[in-house]
């Protein structure tokens, strides 16, 4: 495993990490999840990601149970792990107006509720899961500063914020003497590149002594880049077969299957490198030096075991290999 500093912090985060979206609450119970998380930790993964909204709070409960099981078995202690949650969407099917968003009220009360579900005194990383146009950024910066000050979180960050919003949060934090966001959590994969590669570029120079950390999500575009949906087949036990996530299937199958066709055309590149499509796609994300940690998802042990070997593929991603990938994943297919 490789480790990176998370942005300008001293926090040492594993280059690959493991999330709980979809899997916790819809696919795995604690008996099934624990061996995967334990194996992930044994393989060097130290960051596990969650959110208040995942399975309406059930994912946090499960992550808490997984943590306590590993602690009881002497696998890890709280200090060994970087645990996160994200606040914005609320934790019920239909949250009231005050139980969602980035008001001080929801940030503080939502974080307390998340900690109760997790059974933890603090999370390491606390994210604003989306920007909230209805709340002044100053209120949000003050509220996250309060959570850090109160020991509910060690670092705060954003997820899917525009560069201008992150820049404003930094200016406000500086003016108020509060912590800047340490990290952003954007989608990043071969199909979704622009925020990471273009919009956030000014945040990686370190020019004013601060660098943004990045914990990126959906490296496999929800499993599509594994190639398992080739020919439009949807395996029964896969994410795209889950009714609730039908929008992911529609996205993958849109435009007469252009996305699926492109994934098929990556196969010879992976074969030549001696790796699987999943490993190629994850390596492609991890190869970006501005990415602190690539958050993986795994519903099965064998996926995790396969995916962690992606780091061995990173040195093989020559300029020529990248050119071939870009000939397949053309700009029209990218966001
Ligand atoms: P991926 O795009 O990597 O998708 C993971 C899923 O792909 C797995 O659950 C599994 O689904 C399938 N898969 C994984 N490996 C393989 C393999 N080797 N072969 C075949 N199928 C495979 O990541 P996620 O979309 O899960 O995102 C990762 C994490 O990022 C989330 O858990 C969450 O913590 C975070 N996230 C954050 C968001 C945000 O807004 N901040 C939004 C979304 C995610 P299956 O077996 O069911 O098909």
UniProtKB/TrEMBL annotation:
Gene3D superfamilies: NADP-dependent oxidoreductase domain
Domain NADP-dependent oxidoreductase as annotated: residue spans: 15-328
Keywords tagged on the record: NADP, Oxidoreductase
GO MF: oxidoreductase activity
Source organism, top-level taxon: Eukaryota
Pfam families assigned: Aldo_ket_red (PF00248)
Listed InterPro entries: K_chnl_volt-dep_bsu_KCNAB-rel (IPR005399), NAD(P)_OxRdtase_dom_sf (IPR036812), NADP_OxRdtase_dom (IPR023210)
Family, per entry: Belongs to the shaker potassium channel beta subunit family.
Name the UniProt record assigns to this protein: NADP-dependent oxidoreductase domain-containing protein
Organism of origin: Cyanidium caldarium
UniProt lineage: Eukaryota, Rhodophyta, Bangiophyceae, Cyanidiales, Cyanidiaceae
């Amino acid at each position: 495993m490789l480790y990176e500093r998370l942005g300008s912090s001293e926090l040492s985060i594993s280059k690959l990490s493991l999330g709980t979206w979809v899997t916790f609450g819809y696919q795995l119970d604690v008996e099934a999840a624990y061996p995967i998380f334990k194996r992930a930790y044994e393989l060097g993964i130290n960051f596990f990601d969650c959110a208040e909204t995942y399975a309406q709070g059930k994912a946090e409960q499960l992550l808490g149970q997984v943590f306590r099981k590993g602690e009881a078995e002497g696998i890890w202690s709280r200090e060994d792990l970087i645990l996160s949650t994200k606040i914005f969407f609320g934790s019920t099917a239909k949250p009231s107006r005050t139980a969602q968003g980035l008001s001080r009220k929801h940030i503080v009360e939502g974080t307390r509720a998340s900690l109760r579900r997790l059974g933890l005194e603090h999370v390491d990383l606390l994210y604003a899961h989306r920007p909230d146009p209805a709340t002044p950024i100053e209120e949000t910066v003050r509220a996250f500063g309060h959570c850090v000050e109160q020991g509910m979180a060690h670092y705060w960050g954003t997820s899917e914020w525009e560069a201008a919003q992150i820049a404003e949060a930094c200016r406000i934090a500086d003016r108020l003497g509060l912590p800047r966001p340490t990290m952003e959590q954007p989608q990043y994969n071969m199909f979704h590149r622009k925020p990471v590669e273009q919009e956030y570029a000014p945040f990686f120079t370190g020019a004013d002594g601060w660098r943004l950390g990045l914990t990126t999500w959906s490296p496999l575009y929800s499993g599509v880049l594994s190639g398992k949906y080739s020919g439009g087949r949807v395996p029964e036990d896969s994410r795209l077969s889950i009714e609730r996530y039908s929008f992911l299937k529609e996205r993958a199958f849109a435009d007469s299957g252009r996305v699926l066709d492109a994934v098929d055309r990556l196969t010879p590149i992976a074969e030549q490198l001696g790796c699987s499509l999943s490993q190629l796609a994850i390596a492609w994300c991890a190869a970006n030096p501005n990415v602190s940690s690539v958050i993986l998802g795994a519903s099965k042990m064998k996926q995790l075991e396969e995916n962690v070997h992606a780091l061995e593929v990173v040195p093989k991603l020559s300029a020529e290999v990248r050119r071939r990938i870009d000939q397949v994943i053309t700009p029209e297919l990218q966001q």
